[in-house]
Amino acid sequence: MSERKKAICLVSGGLDSCVCAAIARTECDDIAFLHVNYGQRTQKRELKAFLDISDYYGIEERLVADIGYLADIGGSALTDKRIEVPENQLSQQGVPVTYVPFRNTHIIAIAVSWAEVIGAEKIYIGATEVDSSGYPDCRRTYFEQYNRLIQEGTRPETRIRIATPLIDMAKRQVVETGMLLGAPFHLTWSCYQDEEEACGMCDSCLLRLRGFREAGQNDPIPYRKGKRARG
Fold it and tell me: Cβ distance 76 to 41 under 8 Å?
């Protein structure tokens, strides 16, 4: 193997994780894909996106994990259907109800365990702090602290680090980077609440549409409010 080491890429099936995967492929020779079901509303559609992206890139080493207990815990509009997903509220301040409490900590923990077993040295995650919904577990400082935890809690010979190549990117830059790398945007899914056609009104859809619009590109996925062409 060359100097470019083995890595795990967390692939939810969304826009950011797809571009993150495209970046990881340029930096690593050997990549494994990890997807986690956590009882979210669009679980089936996100899994399909993950499988499609994995097939597109020819990834043979893949793992689908299940932490459906997060739905049992609840507390988020993504996992509790009694809580409505906010629409057209992108300017709202504070942590939104779509935040799944401590979700990334659970997901990354699975990745770290797998990394120790398969000898991966990097864990790529497509988190962005600039154009996010305000989730506390998507901040640069969070990942810095998590890297310290990994160092303390793994074998001394392992050197596993979390890589966040999108952390300082706005959605426009994410789209532009994906275009340059040929990321398969048509296979991705970002909507928080619908699985046939994206709603175009939840935070995730609005951020995605804005990113494509500002990048001057067409979003190739279907929207039920006819927002496909450049948002």
Answer: no
Can you give the residue range of the structural domain that contains 44?
6-189
Q: Would you state the structure tokens that stand for residue 58, as one six-digit string?
A: 């020819």
How many whole angstroms separate alpha carbon 199 and alpha carbon 201? 5
Q: What is the SS3 assignment for 155?
A: coil
- Report the C-alpha gap between 190 and 14 in whole angstroms: 5
SS3 content of the chain, % helix, strand, coil (to 5): 40, 10, 50
Is 216 contained in some domain? no
- Summarize pLDDT for 57-108 with one digit per residue, the tens: 999 999 999 999 999 999 999 999 999 999 998 877 889 999 999 999 999 9
Per residue in 170-192, pLDDT (tens digit) is 999 999 999 999 999 999 999 99
Are the C-beta atoms of 4 and 27 separated by less than 8 Å?
yes
Instruction: CATH number of the domain at 152, please.
Output: 3.40.50.620
DSSP 186: G
- Whole-number Cα distances in Å, 187 to 143, 156, 169, 221, 223: 27, 39, 21, 8, 14
Give the DSSP per-residue string, 52-81: HHHHHHT---EEEEE-THHHHH--STTT-T
What are the φ/ψ torsions at residue 10 (nearest 5 degrees)?
Answer: -80, 120
> 191, 226 in Cβ contact below 8 A?
no
